[in-house]
Design goal:
The protein has helices at 16-30, 67-72, and strands at residues 2-7, 34-38, 44-47, 50-58, 82-88. The protein is an alpha+beta fold. Strand 3 and strand 4 (50-58) form a beta hairpin. The radius of gyration is 13 Å and the shape is globular.
């Protein structure tokens, strides 16, 4: 899987419904068409027609998309702070 996007949700995610809300917020902020295919703590989604898998992961400067966070080290990397990683599964063609 290839990490495509990272999104820092405004609130903690503790269940699939909160995950769905965070994904809807992301889609709204980014002006993306979102379809949740599988609602879980590792949801499968479709963004603008492409399928992705989402995972909660530790916040890390190496994966943040925010240039200010990278430049100034401004990220909450406490153990309980999580970001959403949006991954694209590679499909191999014969």
């Amino acid at each position: 899987m290839t990490l495509c996007r990272v999104y820092e949700p405004a609130a903690e995610i503790t269940n699939p419904e909160e995950f769905a809300k965070a994904l809807k917020d992301f889609a709204k902020d980014e002006h993306k068409d979102l379809e949740i295919i599988d609602l879980s703590m590792t949801p499968r989604i479709r963004l603008d027609g492409k399928e992705y898998v989402c995972r909660l992961q530790a916040a890390d400067l190496a994966v943040t998309e925010n240039p200010f966070q990278r430049a100034f080290g401004m990220i909450d990397d406490s153990p309980n702070h999580k970001v959403i990683g949006i991954y694209r599964e590679e499909v191999l063609q014969d």
